[in-house]
Specification:
- This protein is α+β, with helices and mostly antiparallel strands.
- The protein has 5 helices and 5 strands.
- It starts with a strand and ends with a strand.
C-alpha cells in the first residue's frame, strides 16, 4: 500500500487584500468553473487554494508541473470537500498508484488550512 500526504496553511487576508481586477484573473486561473460557483467568500477561496497546494505536495511535484485547473476541490451533499484530478495531476496520481483521497479544510483565526491524504 502507498500513502502520501500534503498540508498547507494560508492567511485569508492574502485573498481579501487583492485588488478586484487582479482577483478576478487570479480566481479564473486558480479555480475551475465549478469551484467558482461554490466559492462565495475569501475564506472559501483560501481553503480551496490551500487544498490545491496540499494536493500538489502530496503528489510530490508542486504547482508548475501540474496546473491549478487540474486539481478540483468541490463539496459533496453534506458539505465535505471532495477531490477530482485531471490531466497531468491524474497521470501522476496513477503512476504513484494513488486512487483514494481524503481532504480536510479548516478556517480559524484568519487562517485557512488543508490536509490531503492519498492512498493506493
Amino acid at each position: 500500500m502507498k500513502l502520501v500526504s500534503g498540508l498547507d496553511l494560508v492567511e485569508i487576508k492574502r485573498f481579501t487584500t487583492i485588488k478586484p481586477a487582479i482577483k478576478t484573473r487570479f480566481v479564473a486561473r486558480v479555480l475551475t468553473g465549478s469551484e467558482q460557483l461554490e466559492s462565495h467568500s475569501d475564506q472559501s477561496l483560501a481553503g480551496r487554494f490551500a487544498a490545491k497546494e496540499a494536493v500538489a505536495k502530496a503528489l510530490g511535484c508542486g504547482i508548475g508541473k501540474i496546473s491549478w485547473q487540474e486539481i478540483e476541490i468541490l463539496t459533496d451533499s453534506d458539505g465535505a470537500p471532495i477531490l477530482r484530478l485531471y490531466g497531468q495531476a491524474a497521470e501522476i496520481a496513477a503512476k504513484l498508484g494513488i486512487n483514494i483521497w481524503s481532504v480536510s479544510i479548516t478556517h480559524t483565526g484568519g487562517l485557512a488550512a488543508a490536509q490531503v491524504i492519498g492512498m493506493g
